[in-house]
Write a structure and sequence with these properties.
Length: 269
C-alpha cells in the first residue's frame, strides 16, 4: 500500500504544467484530486516517475454559462458541482450525478477533469459527456466526447496535454440518472442516464462496455413513437458488458433495460 518513489512538482499555471510534463516524458502524470491516481499508485498498478500537481493552478475551478453551453473548469470538484446553482439551473442532471459520486470525502477532493481524463467506464460523468456531445477543451485544442473515450482508461490525451474545461450543452428538461450499486457510496454496477433535449431523448449507460455507451437503439425507438417500456427493451442492443465479481454480462444487460425504463418513467413523471 506504499507507492513506489516519484518526483513531485506543483505547477503554478498551465504553461508550467505542460512544459514540465513535456520535459519529464510519458512516465509523468498530472495530479488533480488524486482520488483515482493515488489509490492506483498505492496498489502499484500505476508507477509514474513524477506527478505534476495542478491542484493550485488558478482559473480551472470556474462554472459559467456561455450562450447555450455550460463551461466547467477541470478542477471543479464533485461537491461544488452538486451544490452549484448555475449547474442546477443549466444542467440539473450533472448536479444530481455529482451528488451521487462516491462518498463525502471523494466528492470533496475528486474533480470533473480527473474523472473525464481517467476514462473509467464505471465513472459517471463520461456517460453524460458522451450522450450530450460534450467537448473536452485542453491545452492542445479540443476533443468531442464521442472521440474521447476510446477504450478502457484510454483517451487521445497526449502525455503533456492537460484538460482545461469541459463544455456541455445547456439542457434543463426532464432527466434522471439511476445507479445500481450495493452500497450508496459504491461505483455503479450499471448506471442509466436519460435527458430530454431538443424534443428527443438522449440515453447513456455506465459500466456496460469498455467506454461509456449510448443506448442508440432505444433512442431510435423513442423517436419512432414507441412507448418507454418498449424502447427500454432495446437499451442493451449491441452491447457486450463486462463480467466481473459484481455482475455477469447478462445481468448487466438486464440492468441496462430495467434501469433505462425506470429512468425514463421517472424523468417523464
Ligand atoms: C472510494 C471511491 C469511490 C468513488 N466513486 C466514484 C463514483 O461513484 N463515480 C465516479 O465517477 N467516480 C468515483 N470515484 C472516482 C473519483 O470521482 C475520482 O476523483 C476521479 O475518478 C478522478 O478525479 P481526480 O480529480 O481525483 O483525479 P486524479 O486521481 O488526480 O487523476 C486521475 C487521472 O486523470 C489524470 N488527470 C486528472 N486531471 C487531469 C487534467 N485536468 N488533465 C489531464 N489529465 C488529468 C491523472 O493524470 C490521472 O491519470 C471514486 C473514487 C474513490 C476513491
Amino acid at each position: 500500500m506504499i507507492p513506489a518513489s516519484f518526483d513531485y512538482r506543483r505547477a503554478h499555471d498551465l504553461d508550467e504544467a505542460t512544459r514540465w510534463l513535456g520535459e519529464l516524458g510519458p512516465e509523468a502524470k498530472v495530479l488533480a484530486g488524486g482520488h483515482s491516481l493515488i489509490p492506483l499508485m498505492r496498489l502499484r498498478l500505476a508507477q509514474p516517475s513524477a506527478l505534476v500537481d495542478i491542484g493550485r493552478v488558478p482559473g480551472l475551478d470556474t462554472i459559467r454559462v456561455d450562450g447555450d453551453r455550460l463551461r466547467i473548469g477541470a478542477l471543479v470538484r464533485h461537491a461544488a458541482l452538486a451544490r452549484s446553482e448555475v449547474v442546477r439551473r443549466a444542467l440539473p442532471l450533472l448536479a444530481e450525478m455529482a451528488a451521487e459520486v462516491g462518498d463525502q470525502q471523494v466528492r470533496a477532493r475528486g474533480t470533473l477533469g480527473g474523472v473525464i481524463a481517467h476514462a473509467d467506464p464505471a465513472g459517471d460523468y463520461p456517460t453524460l459527456a458522451l450522450m450530450l456531445d460534450a467537448e473536452i477543451v485542453t491545452t492542445h485544442g479540443s476533443h468531442p466526447a464521442r472521440d474521447f473515450f476510446q477504450h478502457l482508461f484510454t483517451t487521445p490525451l497526449q502525455p503533456d496535454e492537460v484538460i482545461r474545461e469541459v463544455t456541455f450543452p445547456v439542457a434543463a428538461g426532464p432527466h434522471r440518472y439511476i445507479k445500481f450499486r450495493r452500497r450508496r457510496c459504491d461505483w455503479a454496477i450499471v448506471g442509466a442516464a436519460v435527458q430530454q433535449s431538443d424534443g428527443g431523448w438522449r440515453l447513456g449507460l455506465t459500466n456496460c462496455g469498455p467506454t461509456p455507451m449510448r443506448a442508440r437503439a432505444a433512442e431510435a425507438a423513442l423517436a419512432e413513437g414507441r412507448t418507454m417500456a418498449e424502447a427500454a427493451l432495446q437499451a442493451a442492443e449491441g452491447l457486450t458488458p463486462p463480467s466481473d465479481l459484481r455482475a455477469s454480462s447478462d445481468y448487466r444487460r438486464h440492468l441496462a433495460r430495467v434501469l433505462t425504463r425506470r429512468a425514463l418513467e421517472q424523468a417523464a413523471a
